[in-house]
Amino acid sequence: MARYSPSIQNLISNLSKLPGIGGKSAQNIAFHILAMDDAEAAALTDSINAARTSTKRCSCCQNFTDRDPCPICSDPERDKTTVLVVETPRDVSTFERAREYNGLYHVLHGVFDPIKNKNISDTTIPDLINRLSQHEEITEVIIATNQTAEGNATALYLSRMLAPSGITVTRLASGLPMGSDIEYADDLTLMNALRGRVTLAGGREG
Ligand SMILES: [Zn+2]
């Protein structure tokens, strides 16, 4: 691995930590960056820094946003009685693209996974519980975690946790393939999964 100077090697090793970037791609990108002119390279580093400093989490839904509350939470046209719970900010984009859902979101930024030692406190579940206790207008929580063991464990935990509250807890219909991520679902599959959602817990109307 000592084929390159330490600074190049450091760049390659940092790039290879990015999702979907293997060692070979990391080398290609590193040399592409080195071949850029100064203005191009500055634009790249500036955009990373700007995105990191101006992006925060919405204090309501925990999605990434430039302003707090985020445009979705502050949109008067959105249905404030329903909260759709997703794992990542990208899942919000996926649902928004499908244009089927008009309620609010809650981004967990992770999943509950006792096997991998991921606890409730590694997610925004505590924020969700707090939010639900402060907003009595919320009558339904739709759990749209991925159809994976972790996603299902999270759904089960939430449905048990919320059962006494009287809030209806639903889960997306299982039209989504097992083990697949929400973000790869096409619009029609997502629409059907949303429309055919099943009740996991209670609700005042049953
Ligand atoms: Zn928000």
Key structural traits:
single chain, 206 residues, alpha/beta, Dna Topoisomerase Vi A Subunit, Chain: A, domain 2, 5-stranded mixed β-sheet, two-stranded antiparallel ribbon, 7 strands, binds zinc ion
Radius of gyration: 20 Å
Q: In total, how many domains does the architecture comprise?
A: 2
Low-confidence stretches: none
Q: Percent of residues in helical segments? A: 40-55%
* Ligand identities: zinc ion
Instruction: Report the major sheet.
Output: 5 strands, mixed
CATH class value of the largest domain: Alpha Beta
Helix and strand composition category:
alpha/beta
Mean pLDDT: 90
What is the distance, rounded to the nearest whole angstrom, between the alpha carbons of the first and last residues? 62 Å
Topology:
Blueprint: H1 6-15, H2 23-35, H3 38-54, E1 56-57, E2 64-65, E3 79-86, H4 89-98, E4 103-107, H5 125-134, E5 140-143, H6 149-162, E6 168-171, H7 187-195, E7 198-201
Parallel strand pairs: 3-4, 3-5, 5-6
Antiparallel strand pairs: 1-2, 6-7
Helix pairs in contact: 1-2, 4-7
Summarize the structure.
The chain is an alpha/beta fold. The protein contains seven helices and seven strands; from the N terminus they run αααβββαβαβαβαβ.
Q: What can you tell me about this protein's structure?
A:
The longest helix is centred in the first third of the chain and has 17 residues, at 38-54. This protein has helices at residues 6-15, 23-35, 38-54, 89-98, 125-134, 149-162, 187-195, and strands at residues 56-57, 64-65, 79-86, 103-107, 140-143, 168-171, 198-201. Helix 4 packs across helix 7 (187-195). It starts with 5 loop residues before the first helix and ends in a 5-residue tail after the last strand. The radius of gyration is 20 Å and the shape is elongated. The protein is α/β, with parallel strands linked by helices. The protein folds into 2 domains: 6-54, Helicase, Ruva Protein, domain 3 (Orthogonal Bundle), CATH 1.10.8; 64-201, Dna Topoisomerase Vi A Subunit, Chain: A, domain 2 (3-Layer(aba) Sandwich), CATH 3.40.1360.10. The model has no long low-confidence stretch (mean pLDDT 90). The strands form 2 sheets. It has a 5-stranded mixed beta sheet. The chain has 7 helices and 7 strands. Bound molecules: zinc ion. Zinc ion (ZN) binds next to loops.
